[in-house]
Each structure stands twice: as C-alpha cells, then as structure tokens.
Design goal:
The structure is a homodimer of 335-residue chains. Chain A has 335 residues and is α/β, with parallel strands linked by helices. The first copy, chain A, contains 13 helices and 14 strands. Chain A binds a DNA duplex (30 and 30 nucleotides) through helix 2 and helix 4.
Chain lengths: 335, 335
DNA sequence: ACGTTAGCCGAAACCCATTTCGAAAAAAAG
DNA sequence: CTTTTTTTCGAAATGGGTTTCGGCTAACGT
C-alpha cells in the first residue's frame, strides 16, 4: 500500500505537505501541489480511511439498522427500495453505508456499542421495534439517528402520510358509493399500524360515515397475506358485512382477496379492496390492486439528506411527513 | 471515548497489558485480567475498530457490490433475500457489511480503490456486469471476491443450478404432455440468462424433443414484466405457437400471462407457463405461478461462508452450484 | 539598508490500538 | 542459598494519516 510517506520520499517533500495537498490547504505552492499530485497518481496512492478516521473522528460512514426482532427484515420489498435510494443519496454526499447489528466480532453487543466501535457518523433506522431497549439507548445517545415510520413529530423521523393516504382511499371508495367500509389493521405496536388505523377513523369522520368497531379487524402483527386472509374471513362472517375494505398493507389486501376466492366471491364484484404501499405484486395480481403508493425513493433520499444534515450541522431537522398517492387499479367498483 | 490508555491510567497497568487482556494473551495474570476487565466494563470501554484495523490490516468488513449499470439493483426481491442471509451469516462470524460503490467522497473512483480505501477483507459481488472493466480489475486484484450468478466453474462463484432447474421445468411440462415448449430468455449478456437458455436447450435434448429456433424469444435485458409480455406476443403470432413456455424469470412469466390476457387467452387453459426464481409475487398471482425456486437463503449463506473461508485461509473454495426446486402451482395444465 | 509581511514548508504531537522483545519478579530446581 | 526457569509486565516501535505552530525565505514598503 502506498502511503503519504512514500510520496514524500519520492518527491522530496515532507509527509505534512503531502497531506496538505490532499486536504486542499492553501499554504502549498502550485508547483509543489502539482508535483505531489502527479506522483500520487503515478504511484496509485489511495488514502487509508482508518488512519484518517482515527485522527478526524469522522468515518464518512452511515449505519443502517434493522431491528430484526419483528422478523420481517430486509426481505420486504419496501426496504429494498428505500435502501436503494438511501445508498444513492448518501454516496453522492461521500458517505458509505454499513449495517449495524447487535453483535461485534460474533459476540452480543448493543447497537450503541456497535456504532461506537465502527464510529459511524449517524444511523438510519429502517425498521424499528419501539420496545427495544437497545434501540432506545441508541436514540438517547449523541449519535444522530433518522428513523423511518417511527413517529411523525420527533425530529429526525421520516414517514409517509398515512392519515392522508387513508383519507384518499376512503374518499375514493366513498366516491364510488361505498358507505360501509371496513379496515384490516396492521400490527398494533408498529407506528404505521397505529397511524393507518387512526387515518381510517379520522377519514370516516371527515366523510361523515358512521364508525363501527366491528369493522376494524386486526390482520396480525406482520402485515402478512395470511393475516389479511383471516381478517377478511372474519369480516365476511359479520351479520352485516362491509362493501369495501381498506387494508393497512398490500399483503393484507392480497390475503383478503384470497379469502374472497375461498368463499367463491370476487373482488371487486362482491367487495372492493384498497391496499397500502404499492408493492410490486400489487400491479401484477388480478384484479390489480388499487392502493396507496408510498414514494420509497423519495423517502430514502429524504432520510439520507436529513441525517447528513444533522451530522454536518449538529442539528436534527424536524420530522418529515411525505405525501402519498392513490393508485387506482382494478380492485374497486362503483356500487 | 474511553481508550486503553484511560483504563491503564485507572488500573495502574500499562496500555500494553490492557491490550493484551482484550486479545487473550496468556502472559497476563488472572488477577490483573480481572481488574482490567472490571474497570473496562465499569468505564464502558469499547475498542476503536479503526485503530485496530490500522495495526492489524484486518477490518472485519465485507464489501457488498452491486454493479448497478444494469439498472436493476437492490430493488429486486432476489437480492433482499440473499442480502439478508449474507448479513446473518457474516455477522455470526464477526464480519460487518459495507456497500462498495464507484465513488469515494463524492468523487468517482474504481471499485478496487474503494475497497482499498476502506480496506475491506473481501467482497461479495451480488450483481455483476461482466463487461465492467472496474469489476474485472477488482477480480484481478488480491482481494478475495465471491460472485453470485457469474460463472459455475470459477472458484468463488455461487450460482443456482439453472441447467437442472430448466430440466425440472421441462420435465414437468413433458410429463403433462407438452411437446412444443418455448423459451422466453433473459438478458443474453447475463450469466443466468445464458445459463437458463442453455438449460432449456439441453433439457429439450434430454427429453428427446426437437429444438426450434423460433421458439426461443429474448425477453429483453432486464427480466422485466414488459419484456415477457412482448415475447409472449411474438410467440402467439407464430404460425405454430407452442403449448407451453418456460420463462427465464418470474417477471417474464408474469408478463407472458399478461400478454395472454390481452389476446383473451388464459393460463393454463390455453398456455402452460413456468417461471424461474419464485419471487414473492409468484404465489400471489392468479393463476399462481409454477416456477423453479432458488434457495436465496442458502445462496447468501453459502456465499458468505465461502468468502470468509477465502479470507481466513487465503485460498478460494471452488465454485458452488446450488440445487433448485420445482414448485408446482396453477399455471400449467395437462394437455 | 532595514523592518514587515506574506508565502511555503516541515517537525512533532496526536489519534488508538497491536506486537515485539527485553526486563523484572516470582517460582522451581539444584 | 544460588541458579535456572517461568510468569508477568511494560517500553517502544508501528500503522497512516492530520493539525498546530514555528521557521525560513523572498518580496515588499520606506
């Protein structure tokens, strides 16, 4: 490996001067600069990030944290999209991404310890288990953290506008003549689960529709197809079933459609369904799912920019709630 | 930040001794060990990975490389699954994951330079563009690299058994009475695209079926739904269309089904379809897709273990070709 | 001709750990 | 009670950079 000492030796200057060249110090003459730069390129010099970090306390590394306890993890298509845009945005600003886990060298460690060990400049929490003590300790630390779908007021949180999304969905159904609209809710302990349920309730009120407790059925903690199936079955067994369903996630909606098929019913003929997320499968399925699209690309980019802002200004920007969009496809019909 | 010097000061021992404790040197008495360990825990000591790496030349970091030029990237569900298992396996062995990009500090750099800059111990190339010169230079370097779906003979390559997968699919169709089976092929410059086409051709021969050049239609470079749709349309326009299609990817298969719908045809009634990959949507779609499942979890774990083996033994294990599995669902019928 | 000033450059300290090797102390051998 | 061996410890060098601060030279002003 070529070091600044090698370049110093070859050019006849001191390591100090070589270092200064790469750090754009002004007290180096143009001639010296040129000679050092030339030989550096010639010798294939590449700085050593570890040595640099050791000195500057800045690693140019952003930690990516998945609180895996929920068991969902990176697999969910939502995260692939977010991660992709986080990566692109961060890289453009000179930061690299590293996964933060709960162990170091194969031995259990806290997230905070891991962050300190690797001296990451900040962390993006993509999937947060609100009850996790390790996560809470990290948030209490001085390490800047941006969280996805964790809160809509706490500084450093980025979320999609679930409230508005639910309203858009309900409005759409209402416009189609539906008045009895059920909700298959997501995991009650997740922020989006809570938020979408809240959005459903507020949306009903705003549209002047009566609320009916029995029309809210939990679809299990994991936003899974199977959970949606079960919930739809319950709804169909109601004395007075709904004519439409707003599911808290596309997988739940897909499960609901599955349940309909089992009962020899069909969407949208017998039941209108709206999902949430717009995962890839939503447009592939028949009937194609009408759903609320989260802009994952925007979300990742925003999270990355927020974090970098916090890292470089020592001040965490306020929470961002991103707009969502109604994607009308085939799973709803006019009554 | 607490350093070994702080602990040395407090305990009265030298930094050397403190370091030795954490590195399990035998020349430290049990008493000393205990005292140092205690105060370390008390003070919340956490080693600094950068200082350590600087000295030992080992970063305990594995680079993850997506050759994004193809435009697919992390978004594809396949990678989410692989990445997940790579992460779990690597972490269990004490390695962390960092993404390798083609820039450093916001300025363009080669993959190799990035790897040296961060001194990663090895790299897993998840999506390789065979023509990329930067990638080739990385492979020529002394940094251990494991590649997914890149080759099936080169040491350090992990791939699913496309040949066998195609045979399984063809055999299934053959068993159902199909004799005229088409192939919608994937990007010709990708390894899996080539391999699956080869598997199709060999499979036909093995089953004693006649090959017909016109039955092989390229589905475009990106394994996309739209590409599959176009290809199916072409097949339908053939004077003598096939009765079944083996698509080189599930998305292609899904696109093919879409094309059938447009012509008021239906799978499996009018055309049997087999996909490849078993992405999430495959089981969600109607008709649910009969497909060849790649074990992404196994693939990631294998890749990680192979790389770590190479890192720690200086010797790259031979290529691994992983078995695949036929998943029979609803998209094929008996003729 | 002399004091100022600005422009360039480098010595040395520092960041935090690892590792070698020698020395001191303690234990074992004689 | 020496001598030898074993334990236990630490000084110092090392890794590759950054940053402060002081020194030297050349140009400038008068």
């Amino acid at each position: 490996m070529i070091t600044i000492y090698d370049i110093a030796r070859v050019t006849g200057y001191s390591p100090t001067t070589v270092s200064k060249v790469f750090n754009n110090y002004s007290d180096v003459s143009a001639k010296t600069r040129g000679k050092i730069l030339d030989t550096a390129k010639e010798m294939g010099y590449m700085p050593n990030s570890h040595a640099r970090t050791l000195m500057t306390k800045k690693s140019w590394t952003i930690g990516i944290l998945f609180n895996e306890s929920s068991g969902v993890g990176i697999r969910h298509p939502f995260f692939g999209g977010v991660l992709d845009s986080v990566k692109k945005t961060a890289e453009a600003e000179g930061y690299d991404l590293m996964f933060i886990s709960d162990n170091i060298g194969g031995k259990t460690a806290s997230y905070l310890e891991h962050c300190r060990f690797r001296s990451v400049d900040g962390v993006i929490v993509m999937l947060a288990d609100r009850g996790d003590e390790g996560l809470q300790n990290l948030l209490k630390s001085d390490i800047p953290c941006v969280l996805l779908d964790f809160d809509d007021e706490r500084p450093g949180c980025v979320s999609s506008d679930s409230i508005d999304g639910c309203y858009l969905a309900l409005k759409h159904l209402h416009d189609l003549g539906h008045r009895r609209i059920a909700h298959i809710s997501g995991g009650g302990d997740t922020f989006v689960g809570q938020q979408r349920r809240l959005g459903y309730e507020q949306g009903l009120r705003r549209l002047g529709l009566a609320a009916d407790e029995r029309l809210i059925v939990p679809g299990g903690p994991f936003f899974s197809v199977e959970g949606g199936r079960q919930a739809m079955l319950e709804l169909l067994d109601l004395p007075q079933p709904p004519t439409a369903v707003l599911a808290a996630g596309d997988n739940l909606a897909l499960g609901a459609i599955r349940a309909l098929e089992e009962r020899n019913l069909e969407a949208p003929r017998d039941m209108s369904i709206v999902g949430f997320d717009d995962i890839e499968a939503a447009s592939l399925v028949r009937p194609a799912l009408t759903t609320i699209r989260q802009d994952v690309g925007h979300m990742g980019a925003r999270a990355a920019r927020m974090l970098i802002g916090a890292i470089e200004s020592e001040d965490m920007p306020p929470a961002a709630v991103l707009p969502v969009e109604l994607i009308v496809r085939e799973s709803c019909r006019r009554l």
